[in-house]
Design brief:
The protein has a single domain (about 30-235, about 280-330), classed as Glycerol-3-phosphate (1)-acyltransferase (3-Layer(aba) Sandwich). The protein is about 40% helix and about 15% strand. It has twelve helices and ten strands. The chain has helices at about 25-50, 55-65, 80-95, 130-140, 165, 175-180, 195, 215-220, 245-250, 255, 295-300, 305-330, and strands spanning about 100-105, 115-120, 145-150, 170, 185-190, 225-230, 240, 265, 270-275, 290. The strands form two sheets. A seven-stranded mixed beta sheet has the order 1-10-6-2-5-3-4, sandwiched between helices. It has a three-stranded antiparallel beta sheet with strand order 7-8-9, with no helix packed on it. β8 and β9 form a beta hairpin. The longest helix is centred in the N-terminal third of the chain and has 25 residues, at about 25-50. The protein starts with about 25 loop residues before the first helix and ends in a 7-residue tail after the last helix.
Length: about 325
Protein backbone atom coordinates (compact mmCIF):
# COMPACT_ATOMS: atom_id res chain seq x y z
CA UNK A 1 0.00 0.00 0.00
CA UNK A 2 1.40 3.46 -0.85
CA UNK A 3 2.73 4.93 2.36
CA UNK A 4 1.04 8.10 3.53
CA UNK A 5 0.29 9.34 6.99
CA UNK A 6 -3.48 9.94 7.05
CA UNK A 7 -4.84 11.73 10.13
CA UNK A 8 -7.11 9.86 12.51
CA UNK A 9 -10.21 11.71 11.30
CA UNK A 10 -9.68 10.48 7.74
CA UNK A 11 -9.53 6.65 7.67
CA UNK A 12 -7.15 5.00 5.24
CA UNK A 13 -9.78 2.66 3.85
CA UNK A 14 -12.69 4.14 1.88
CA UNK A 15 -15.86 4.56 3.92
CA UNK A 16 -18.84 2.53 2.71
CA UNK A 17 -21.55 4.60 1.01
CA UNK A 18 -24.63 4.83 3.23
CA UNK A 19 -27.06 3.27 0.78
CA UNK A 20 -24.91 0.14 0.37
CA UNK A 21 -25.41 -2.23 3.34
CA UNK A 22 -22.14 -3.43 4.86
CA UNK A 23 -21.40 -7.15 4.63
CA UNK A 24 -20.56 -9.06 7.82
CA UNK A 25 -16.84 -9.18 8.53
CA UNK A 26 -16.67 -12.98 8.22
CA UNK A 27 -18.35 -12.86 4.83
CA UNK A 28 -15.93 -10.23 3.57
CA UNK A 29 -12.93 -12.21 4.78
CA UNK A 30 -14.22 -15.38 3.13
CA UNK A 31 -14.36 -13.69 -0.22
CA UNK A 32 -10.59 -13.19 -0.25
CA UNK A 33 -8.61 -10.42 -1.94
CA UNK A 34 -9.74 -11.24 -5.48
CA UNK A 35 -13.36 -11.38 -4.43
CA UNK A 36 -13.11 -8.04 -2.67
CA UNK A 37 -11.46 -6.47 -5.72
CA UNK A 38 -14.17 -7.92 -7.93
CA UNK A 39 -16.79 -6.39 -5.65
CA UNK A 40 -15.00 -3.06 -5.69
CA UNK A 41 -14.80 -3.17 -9.48
CA UNK A 42 -18.50 -3.87 -9.65
CA UNK A 43 -19.25 -0.95 -7.37
CA UNK A 44 -17.00 1.30 -9.42
CA UNK A 45 -18.75 0.20 -12.62
CA UNK A 46 -22.16 0.92 -11.15
CA UNK A 47 -21.11 4.34 -9.90
CA UNK A 48 -19.44 5.21 -13.20
CA UNK A 49 -22.38 4.13 -15.35
CA UNK A 50 -25.34 4.78 -13.08
CA UNK A 51 -24.71 8.19 -11.58
CA UNK A 52 -27.19 9.59 -9.09
CA UNK A 53 -30.10 10.91 -11.12
CA UNK A 54 -30.16 14.53 -10.07
CA UNK A 55 -31.41 17.12 -12.57
CA UNK A 56 -27.95 18.71 -12.73
CA UNK A 57 -26.24 15.40 -13.52
CA UNK A 58 -28.91 14.46 -16.04
CA UNK A 59 -28.42 17.76 -17.85
CA UNK A 60 -24.64 17.41 -17.67
CA UNK A 61 -24.79 13.90 -19.13
CA UNK A 62 -26.99 15.06 -21.99
CA UNK A 63 -24.65 17.97 -22.70
CA UNK A 64 -21.64 15.67 -22.63
CA UNK A 65 -23.23 13.28 -25.12
CA UNK A 66 -24.10 16.16 -27.43
CA UNK A 67 -20.57 17.54 -27.55
CA UNK A 68 -18.57 14.36 -27.03
CA UNK A 69 -16.35 14.95 -30.02
CA UNK A 70 -15.64 18.59 -29.16
CA UNK A 71 -13.76 20.33 -26.41
CA UNK A 72 -16.31 21.77 -24.00
CA UNK A 73 -15.84 24.25 -21.17
CA UNK A 74 -14.74 23.01 -17.77
CA UNK A 75 -17.51 22.17 -15.32
CA UNK A 76 -16.43 21.71 -11.71
CA UNK A 77 -19.66 19.82 -10.98
CA UNK A 78 -18.46 17.00 -13.23
CA UNK A 79 -16.29 15.70 -10.39
CA UNK A 80 -18.11 12.86 -8.63
CA UNK A 81 -16.88 12.22 -5.08
CA UNK A 82 -18.86 8.94 -4.94
CA UNK A 83 -17.03 7.67 -8.00
CA UNK A 84 -13.72 8.80 -6.52
CA UNK A 85 -14.51 6.93 -3.30
CA UNK A 86 -15.47 3.75 -5.16
CA UNK A 87 -12.25 3.90 -7.19
CA UNK A 88 -10.01 3.96 -4.11
CA UNK A 89 -9.78 0.18 -3.43
CA UNK A 90 -8.72 -0.64 -6.98
CA UNK A 91 -6.43 2.38 -7.16
CA UNK A 92 -4.71 1.40 -3.89
CA UNK A 93 -4.14 -2.11 -5.21
CA UNK A 94 -2.61 -0.91 -8.49
CA UNK A 95 -0.45 1.68 -6.77
CA UNK A 96 0.74 -0.76 -4.12
CA UNK A 97 1.41 -3.85 -6.22
CA UNK A 98 2.40 -2.32 -9.55
CA UNK A 99 4.14 0.93 -8.57
CA UNK A 100 5.06 0.27 -4.90
CA UNK A 101 4.13 3.91 -4.52
CA UNK A 102 5.09 6.25 -1.71
CA UNK A 103 3.59 9.70 -1.20
CA UNK A 104 5.49 11.75 1.37
CA UNK A 105 5.00 15.16 2.94
CA UNK A 106 1.20 15.43 2.67
CA UNK A 107 1.21 17.18 6.06
CA UNK A 108 2.73 20.21 4.31
CA UNK A 109 -0.54 20.87 2.46
CA UNK A 110 -2.70 23.59 4.09
CA UNK A 111 -6.01 22.12 5.21
CA UNK A 112 -8.33 25.10 5.21
CA UNK A 113 -7.62 26.80 1.91
CA UNK A 114 -7.16 26.00 -1.78
CA UNK A 115 -3.62 25.50 -3.02
CA UNK A 116 -1.91 25.38 -6.39
CA UNK A 117 0.28 22.30 -6.75
CA UNK A 118 3.17 22.64 -9.18
CA UNK A 119 4.73 19.35 -10.22
CA UNK A 120 7.35 17.88 -12.49
CA UNK A 121 6.03 15.45 -15.03
CA UNK A 122 7.21 12.15 -16.49
CA UNK A 123 5.67 8.95 -17.72
CA UNK A 124 4.17 10.02 -21.03
CA UNK A 125 0.45 10.19 -21.71
CA UNK A 126 -0.40 7.65 -19.00
CA UNK A 127 0.76 10.10 -16.26
CA UNK A 128 1.40 7.58 -13.46
CA UNK A 129 2.82 10.37 -11.27
CA UNK A 130 -0.52 12.23 -11.37
CA UNK A 131 -2.37 9.03 -10.50
CA UNK A 132 -0.18 8.30 -7.47
CA UNK A 133 -0.29 11.86 -6.11
CA UNK A 134 -4.07 12.16 -6.55
CA UNK A 135 -4.52 8.84 -4.75
CA UNK A 136 -2.33 9.93 -1.84
CA UNK A 137 -4.11 13.30 -1.57
CA UNK A 138 -7.58 11.76 -1.66
CA UNK A 139 -6.71 9.09 0.88
CA UNK A 140 -5.21 11.68 3.24
CA UNK A 141 -7.95 14.31 3.05
CA UNK A 142 -10.92 12.23 1.90
CA UNK A 143 -12.70 12.24 -1.49
CA UNK A 144 -14.92 15.15 -0.48
CA UNK A 145 -12.00 17.59 -0.69
CA UNK A 146 -11.82 18.37 -4.41
CA UNK A 147 -8.56 18.03 -6.31
CA UNK A 148 -8.49 18.93 -10.01
CA UNK A 149 -5.63 17.89 -12.27
CA UNK A 150 -5.13 19.92 -15.44
CA UNK A 151 -4.63 17.58 -18.40
CA UNK A 152 -4.39 17.89 -22.16
CA UNK A 153 -7.56 19.61 -23.34
CA UNK A 154 -8.33 16.93 -25.93
CA UNK A 155 -8.22 14.10 -23.38
CA UNK A 156 -11.22 15.43 -21.46
CA UNK A 157 -13.41 15.34 -24.57
CA UNK A 158 -12.41 12.12 -26.35
CA UNK A 159 -15.18 9.48 -26.49
CA UNK A 160 -14.81 7.02 -23.64
CA UNK A 161 -12.62 9.33 -21.53
CA UNK A 162 -15.40 11.38 -19.99
CA UNK A 163 -14.74 9.48 -16.77
CA UNK A 164 -11.58 11.58 -16.39
CA UNK A 165 -13.75 14.62 -15.76
CA UNK A 166 -15.75 12.71 -13.17
CA UNK A 167 -12.50 11.86 -11.41
CA UNK A 168 -11.51 15.55 -11.31
CA UNK A 169 -9.58 16.20 -14.51
CA UNK A 170 -9.97 19.63 -16.09
CA UNK A 171 -8.94 20.97 -19.50
CA UNK A 172 -5.46 22.43 -19.24
CA UNK A 173 -6.12 26.16 -19.44
CA UNK A 174 -5.81 29.07 -17.04
CA UNK A 175 -9.53 29.81 -17.01
CA UNK A 176 -10.38 26.35 -15.69
CA UNK A 177 -7.67 26.57 -13.04
CA UNK A 178 -8.81 30.01 -11.88
CA UNK A 179 -12.41 28.87 -11.63
CA UNK A 180 -11.44 25.82 -9.58
CA UNK A 181 -9.23 27.81 -7.19
CA UNK A 182 -11.92 30.45 -6.76
CA UNK A 183 -14.38 27.70 -5.83
CA UNK A 184 -12.05 26.47 -3.06
CA UNK A 185 -10.60 23.46 -4.90
CA UNK A 186 -6.97 22.41 -5.05
CA UNK A 187 -5.39 22.31 -8.51
CA UNK A 188 -2.39 20.38 -9.83
CA UNK A 189 -0.55 21.82 -12.84
CA UNK A 190 2.55 20.76 -14.76
CA UNK A 191 4.22 23.85 -16.25
CA UNK A 192 6.70 21.59 -18.09
CA UNK A 193 3.84 19.83 -19.87
CA UNK A 194 4.80 17.67 -22.83
CA UNK A 195 8.41 18.87 -22.66
CA UNK A 196 8.91 16.95 -19.44
CA UNK A 197 6.43 14.11 -19.98
CA UNK A 198 7.89 12.88 -23.27
CA UNK A 199 11.54 13.82 -23.14
CA UNK A 200 14.11 10.99 -23.28
CA UNK A 201 14.25 8.83 -20.18
CA UNK A 202 17.96 9.59 -19.70
CA UNK A 203 17.24 13.34 -19.48
CA UNK A 204 14.42 13.19 -16.94
CA UNK A 205 16.49 13.92 -13.83
CA UNK A 206 16.16 17.65 -14.52
CA UNK A 207 13.29 19.96 -13.57
CA UNK A 208 11.94 21.94 -16.51
CA UNK A 209 9.19 24.40 -15.61
CA UNK A 210 9.65 26.37 -18.82
CA UNK A 211 10.17 30.11 -19.20
CA UNK A 212 6.57 31.31 -18.78
CA UNK A 213 5.84 32.36 -15.18
CA UNK A 214 2.11 32.02 -15.80
CA UNK A 215 1.80 29.52 -12.97
CA UNK A 216 3.13 32.14 -10.53
CA UNK A 217 0.70 34.73 -11.90
CA UNK A 218 -2.12 32.23 -11.47
CA UNK A 219 -1.29 31.76 -7.77
CA UNK A 220 -1.01 35.52 -7.24
CA UNK A 221 -4.33 36.25 -8.94
CA UNK A 222 -6.09 33.54 -6.94
CA UNK A 223 -4.37 34.50 -3.69
CA UNK A 224 -3.29 30.92 -2.95
CA UNK A 225 0.05 29.38 -1.92
CA UNK A 226 2.10 27.25 -4.29
CA UNK A 227 2.94 23.75 -3.07
CA UNK A 228 5.74 22.07 -5.08
CA UNK A 229 5.30 18.35 -5.79
CA UNK A 230 8.34 16.35 -6.92
CA UNK A 231 8.04 12.83 -8.33
CA UNK A 232 10.52 10.23 -9.50
CA UNK A 233 10.06 6.88 -11.22
CA UNK A 234 7.59 7.81 -13.94
CA UNK A 235 10.43 8.07 -16.48
CA UNK A 236 11.12 4.37 -15.88
CA UNK A 237 7.61 3.16 -16.78
CA UNK A 238 8.65 3.07 -20.47
CA UNK A 239 11.71 3.77 -22.59
CA UNK A 240 11.03 7.30 -23.82
CA UNK A 241 13.10 8.14 -26.88
CA UNK A 242 12.17 11.80 -27.32
CA UNK A 243 9.45 14.28 -28.09
CA UNK A 244 9.72 13.93 -31.87
CA UNK A 245 9.62 17.59 -32.91
CA UNK A 246 11.73 16.86 -35.99
CA UNK A 247 9.36 14.07 -37.04
CA UNK A 248 6.36 16.37 -36.66
CA UNK A 249 8.03 18.98 -38.87
CA UNK A 250 9.05 16.39 -41.46
CA UNK A 251 5.48 15.06 -41.68
CA UNK A 252 4.07 18.59 -41.86
CA UNK A 253 1.94 18.02 -38.78
CA UNK A 254 2.96 21.35 -37.28
CA UNK A 255 1.73 23.27 -40.34
CA UNK A 256 -1.43 21.27 -41.03
CA UNK A 257 -2.71 20.44 -37.56
CA UNK A 258 -0.62 22.51 -35.13
CA UNK A 259 0.97 19.33 -33.72
CA UNK A 260 4.51 20.25 -32.78
CA UNK A 261 5.69 16.88 -31.47
CA UNK A 262 5.17 13.16 -32.06
CA UNK A 263 6.57 11.41 -28.96
CA UNK A 264 8.45 8.16 -29.48
CA UNK A 265 8.72 5.45 -26.86
CA UNK A 266 9.14 1.71 -26.43
CA UNK A 267 6.61 0.09 -24.12
CA UNK A 268 4.12 -2.79 -24.02
CA UNK A 269 1.85 -3.77 -25.60
CA UNK A 270 2.74 -2.02 -28.89
CA UNK A 271 6.54 -2.06 -28.75
CA UNK A 272 7.55 1.09 -30.62
CA UNK A 273 4.89 3.62 -29.76
CA UNK A 274 4.57 6.60 -32.10
CA UNK A 275 2.70 9.55 -30.64
CA UNK A 276 1.42 7.52 -27.68
CA UNK A 277 -2.03 7.88 -29.24
CA UNK A 278 -3.15 4.42 -28.11
CA UNK A 279 -1.45 4.71 -24.74
CA UNK A 280 0.76 2.02 -23.28
CA UNK A 281 1.03 -0.31 -20.31
CA UNK A 282 3.38 1.35 -17.82
CA UNK A 283 6.19 -0.85 -16.57
CA UNK A 284 6.07 -1.61 -12.82
CA UNK A 285 8.62 0.97 -11.73
CA UNK A 286 8.67 2.28 -8.16
CA UNK A 287 7.11 5.74 -7.89
CA UNK A 288 7.93 8.19 -5.11
CA UNK A 289 6.18 11.55 -4.72
CA UNK A 290 7.47 14.17 -2.30
CA UNK A 291 5.35 17.17 -1.31
CA UNK A 292 7.38 20.24 -0.27
CA UNK A 293 6.40 23.06 2.11
CA UNK A 294 4.07 25.71 0.65
CA UNK A 295 5.41 28.92 -0.84
CA UNK A 296 3.42 32.07 -0.01
CA UNK A 297 4.65 34.18 -2.89
CA UNK A 298 3.89 37.67 -1.55
CA UNK A 299 5.00 36.83 1.98
CA UNK A 300 8.37 35.52 0.75
CA UNK A 301 9.01 37.74 -2.29
CA UNK A 302 7.25 40.99 -1.40
CA UNK A 303 3.97 42.65 -2.45
CA UNK A 304 5.11 43.06 -6.07
CA UNK A 305 7.17 39.92 -6.70
CA UNK A 306 9.31 39.22 -9.74
CA UNK A 307 7.34 36.33 -11.25
CA UNK A 308 10.31 34.93 -13.14
CA UNK A 309 12.43 34.98 -9.97
CA UNK A 310 9.70 33.04 -8.17
CA UNK A 311 9.57 30.49 -10.99
CA UNK A 312 13.34 30.09 -10.84
CA UNK A 313 13.13 29.60 -7.08
CA UNK A 314 10.50 26.88 -7.50
CA UNK A 315 12.57 25.13 -10.15
CA UNK A 316 15.73 25.26 -8.02
CA UNK A 317 13.93 23.98 -4.92
CA UNK A 318 12.30 21.14 -6.84
CA UNK A 319 15.58 20.28 -8.58
CA UNK A 320 17.32 19.97 -5.22
CA UNK A 321 14.68 17.50 -4.02
CA UNK A 322 14.66 15.55 -7.30
CA UNK A 323 18.44 15.20 -7.12
CA UNK A 324 18.16 13.92 -3.56
CA UNK A 325 15.44 11.43 -4.50
CA UNK A 326 17.64 10.23 -7.36
CA UNK A 327 20.60 9.87 -5.01
CA UNK A 328 18.57 7.65 -2.71
CA UNK A 329 17.34 5.53 -5.59
CA UNK A 330 19.43 2.35 -5.79
CA UNK A 331 18.50 0.98 -9.21
CA UNK A 332 16.15 2.01 -12.05
CA UNK A 333 12.67 0.41 -11.84
CA UNK A 334 13.61 -1.30 -8.57
CA UNK A 335 13.88 2.06 -6.76
Amino acid sequence: MPRTAPPTDHPREPVAVADRPARPLAARAARGLLGQLAGAAGGLRRTATEAVATPARTAASAAQAAVRSRVRPADLDDRDSLLVRDALPIAWTVASLWFRAEVRGLHHIPRERPVLFVGNHSGGAMTPDSFVFALGFTSFFGPERPLHVLVDTVLTSLPGLGILRRLGALPGDDAAAREALSAGSCVLVYPGGHREAHRPSWESARIDLGDDPGVVRLALDAGVPIVPVVSIGGQETALFLGRGEALARRLGLDRRFGIGAVPLSVAPPWGLNVGDVLGHLPLPAKLVVQVLPPVDVRAEFGPDPDERAVLDHLAATMQEMLTELGRRRRLPVVG
